[in-house]
């Protein structure tokens, strides 16, 4: 079914709003993936609030222009293109899912990504997937904070503890003298 020019403009505007609201997005080549494989990819991305969809190149091109994001390389939008929209700010989690999935299903290839207000090529996306995700970093931070606070508490308790031990030792010494 052919879309009218007005319908294309509306779709492009809607996509531009989604792109602006997303903190990151990735473009993939998906040709050769089965429907079940795409369903599995969508399921895995859902954990990171990522959404995978097949997009029309001209609509994406116009949406990016409308969103004020200049396309770095035109080759990204050639041939069949799938787009992952990340809505939670965890670009590393989505990149990890894409890299893991592309190892399991070689038909999926990451072409480019946009995160942290800059374009990334396939190699940059692979490097991003090697970083720790936001939840992992938060867990490490919580562990470091807990350890630091417990060490500070131990240091602050030491003078009082030492004083009480000295008083107890004096009491024991006085009891032994009386007997």
Strand content: 15-25%
Number of domains in the coordinates? 2
Shape verdict: elongated
CATH topology annotation of the largest domain: Alpha-Beta Plaits
Put simply, the count of helices is 6
Protein traits:
179 residues, 2 domains, alpha+beta, elongated, Alpha-Beta Plaits
Chain-wise SSE layout:
Blueprint: H1 5-21, E1 24-29, H2 35-46, E2 50-55, H3 57-67, E3 81-86, H4 91-104, E4 109-115, E5 118-120, H5 122-130, H6 134-178
Task: Give a summary of the structure in a few sentences.
By secondary structure, the chain is an alpha+beta fold. The protein folds into two domains: 5-131, Ribosomal protein L10, N-terminal RNA-binding domain (Alpha-Beta Plaits, 2-Layer Sandwich), CATH 3.30.70; 133-179.
Explain what the structure shows.
The chain is of the alpha+beta class and 179 residues long. It folds into 2 domains: 5-131, Ribosomal protein L10, N-terminal RNA-binding domain (Alpha-Beta Plaits); 133-179. Helices cover 60% and strands 16% of the residues. The chain has 6 helices and 5 strands. The chain has helices at 5-21, 35-46, 57-67, 91-104, 122-130, 134-178; strands spanning 24-29, 50-55, 81-86, 109-115, 118-120. It has a 5-stranded antiparallel sheet. A hairpin with a 2-residue loop joins strand 4 and strand 5 (118-120). Helix 1 (5-21) crosses helix 3 (57-67) and helix 4 (91-104) crosses helix 5. It is elongated, with a radius of gyration of 28 Å. The termini are far apart.
């Amino acid at each position: 079914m052919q879309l009218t020019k007005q319908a294309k403009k509306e779709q492009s505007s809607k996509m531009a709003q989604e792109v602006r609201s997303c903190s990151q997005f990735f473009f993939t080549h998906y040709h050769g993936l089965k429907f079940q494989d795409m369903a599995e990819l969508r399921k895995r991305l859902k954990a990171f609030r990522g959404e995978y969809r097949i997009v029309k190149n001209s609509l994406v091109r116009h949406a990016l222009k409308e969103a004020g994001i200049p396309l770095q390389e035109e080759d990204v939008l050639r041939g069949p293109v799938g787009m992952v929209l990340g809505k939670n700010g965890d670009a590393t989690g989505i990149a990890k899912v894409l890299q893991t999935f592309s190892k399991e299903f070689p038909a999926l290839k990451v072409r480019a990504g946009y995160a942290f207000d800059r374009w990334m090529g396939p190699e940059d996306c692979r490097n991003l997937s090697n970083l720790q995700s936001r939840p992992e970093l938060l867990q490490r931070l919580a562990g470091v904070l807990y350890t630091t606070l417990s060490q500070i508490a131990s240091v602050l308790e030491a003078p009082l503890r030492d004083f009480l031990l000295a008083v107890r030792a004096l009491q024991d010494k006085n009891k032994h003298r009386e007997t």
